[in-house]
From TrEMBL:
Belongs to the major facilitator superfamily. Phosphate:H(+) symporter (TC 2.A.1.9) family. Residues 13-259 form the Nodulin-like domain. SUPFAM superfamilies: MFS general substrate transporter. Pfam families: NFD4_C, Nodulin-like. It comes from Anisodus acutangulus. The chain crosses the membrane at residues 79-96, 108-134, 146-168, 174-193, 214-232, 238-261, 334-352, 459-484, 504-525. GO terms for cellular component: membrane. This is Nodulin-like domain-containing protein. It is found in: Membrane.
């Protein structure tokens, strides 16, 4: 296959990363449920508990992400992307058929299956993207994760604003976009994204940091652009079309990096091309350790002949080395990370899934602004925490989990503010939840790879994100659904509704307590991993010093 580049070249490497960014920019469809949930509720005459259980079914799809994790060690990146694209096309396509009135509403349990398929489709996309890109840029895990997860956060606002600009926030058109656009982008990424050897020199690593900085700047421009559009009020048709066109140009602008590298390569025709050979499945851990312990045993035989026998014993894995999923689950650190992750993302998902009803309860007729605010500020939380945490690891050996702790306590304060239901509290609450949820995702992903290695990372990542369906079930399906229905009044047709600050007050109080528990766990993990990050810092410093001396 010839496209004027090889996959192992800098041009091919960055074309693959840009394609990954595009996939992430359209793979946050799991967070858009609030944009069409009210249409489903009225069309199917659902109670709030039934509606919340539909959102849980969507998030349960992530529980089957274990399949994507298992496949990541056996199938190629293009195949995994293709599976995700097709599954999303079917899952959201059927929902579009129902909401658009093309077919009659399906039975409740069948709708749950198709929502589950839509939710599961993103696990295939995210697994293919994260595992491949973290392995390709393993020395810059923080920035890579921040950028990719940042674009996932922006994807909700991208879909919401484009639909609002071009189709007046029509729920059926929105679902059609969710079905068609991710499938098309995945087909594009299949062409370019491959797993290749990571950078091997400090020069290459510095170039990566420079280009990541460019992508960060572009991403921030996109986020600010979306934010300005959201807060600037109603817009005319021509202006909205112009907005959408500029947004597409901004999304395509990271292509300037591989174009620049291609031009640079052509100009330097006489330069020496260093072809790096190696296994495409490079999964070298950050800290290399001996897997075996050698012992000498003295054996005295019956004829008084003394022999020394060397016995090789395999020692247990230590944090920082490659772990299988079972080895990881036997460590206390895994469960501390797992439960603290549940406290953060579970409560955050409850807010995102219920933003529509929260806005209506407080008297807002259009809740799309809150969905966009959560998405955009979630982007800032993801992209900044990834780069900032990486900087402090390299400069001061500061453990990455400390940033999770900071986000948990801020999120607890945000929930208390939402419970007070002051004027404008939903605006502020949407921003705070978005930021903290973004930090939680962007920090936990590289933390898991640093604690348990990259060799089996695809499966470990998908076990970790079981917290998404679990948290959605506990905090959204049970907590928010039951407490809302307890306050609501029945409507004609079998549904119900609740208006007033009391509808979600107790929900917010319970979730703030959960975040305080998560804060304590993150502090504990920070203390337990302090020595690991000190070793990572020392290892990087030693390599840098040896390079300078040579």
């Amino acid at each position: 296959m010839s496209f004027g580049f090889t996959y192992n070249s800098p041009v091919g490497k960055w074309l693959g990363f840009i394609a990954a960014v595009w996939v992430q920019a359209i793979s946050g469809n799991n967070y858009t449920f609030s944009n069409y949930s009210d249409a489903l509720k009225s069309l199917m005459a659902l109670t709030q508990l039934q509606l919340n259980n539909l959102s849980v079914a969507k998030d349960v799809g992530k529980a089957f992400g274990i399949l994507a994790g298992l496949a990541s060690d056996r199938l190629s990146t293009p195949v995994i992307l293709l599976i995700g694209g097709i599954e999303g096309f079917i899952g959201y396509g059927v929902q579009w058929l129902v909401v658009s009135g093309t077919i009659k509403p399906l039975p409740y349990w069948i709708m749950c299956i198709f929502l589950c398929m839509g939710g599961n489709s993103t696990t295939w996309m995210n697994t293919a993207i994260l595992v491949t890109c973290i392995r390709n840029f393993r020395k810059n895990r923080g920035p890579v994760t921040g950028i990719l997860k940042g674009y996932v956060g922006l994807s909700t606002a991208i879909f919401t604003d484009i639909c609002s600009a071009l189709f007046a926030s029509d729920p059926s058109t929105f679902l059609l976009l969710l079905a068609v656009v991710p499938f098309t982008v995945c087909l594009t990424a299949i062409v370019f994204l491959r797993e290749i050897p990571p950078s091997s020199t400090n020069v290459e690593e510095k170039e990566e940091v420079k280009y990541f900085g460019v992508i960060n700047v572009i991403a921030v421009i996109i986020a600010v652009y979306l934010l300005v559009f959201d807060i600037s009020g109603p817009h005319g048709k021509v202006f909205s079309q112009f907005f959408a066109a500029i947004l597409l140009v901004l999304l395509g602008s990271p292509l300037l990096i591989p174009i620049y590298l291609m031009v640079k390569k052509n100009i330097r025709e006489n330069s020496v091309n260093l072809d790096v050979e190696g296994n495409n499945n490079i999964v070298e851990p950050l800290l290399l350790g001996e897997e075996t312990v050698k012992k000498e045993v003295v054996v005295v035989k019956e004829d008084n002949v003394v022999a020394v026998v060397k016995v090789v014993e395999k020692r247990p894995r230590v944090i920082g080395e490659d772990h299988t999923i079972f080895e990881a689950m036997r460590t206390l650190d895994f469960w501390i990370l797992f439960v603290s992750f549940l406290c953060g993302v579970g409560t955050g998902l409850a807010v995102m899934n219920n933003l529509g009803q929260m806005g209506l309860a407080l008297g807002y007729t259009d809740v799309s602004i809150f969905v966009s605010l959560t998405s955009i500020w979630g982007f800032f939380g993801r992209i900044l925490s990834g780069s900032v945490s990486e900087y402090f690891i390299k400069k001061a050996a500061l453990p990455r989990p400390i940033w999770n702790a900071a986000s948990q306590i801020l999120m607890a304060v945000g929930y208390i503010f939402l419970a007070m239901a002051l004027p404008g509290s939903l605006y502020i609450g949407s921003i705070v939840v978005g930021i903290c949820y973004g930090v939680r995702l962007a920090i936990s992903v590289p933390t898991a790879s640093e604690l348990f290695g990259l060799k089996y990372y695809g499966l470990i990542y998908n076990v970790l994100i079981l917290n998404l369906p679990l948290g959605s079930f506990l905090f959204s399906g049970l907590l928010a659904g039951l407490l809302y229905d307890a306050q609501a009044t029945k409507t004609a047709g079998g549904g119900n509704t609740c208006v007033g600050a009391h509808c979600y007050r107790l929900v917010f109080i319970v979730m703030s307590i959960a975040c305080i528990v998560g804060f304590g766990l993150d502090i504990l993990l920070t203390i337990r991993t302090k020595s690991l990050y000190a070793k990572i810092y020392a290892s990087r410093k030693a390599k840098k010093a040896s390079t300078v001396l040579s």
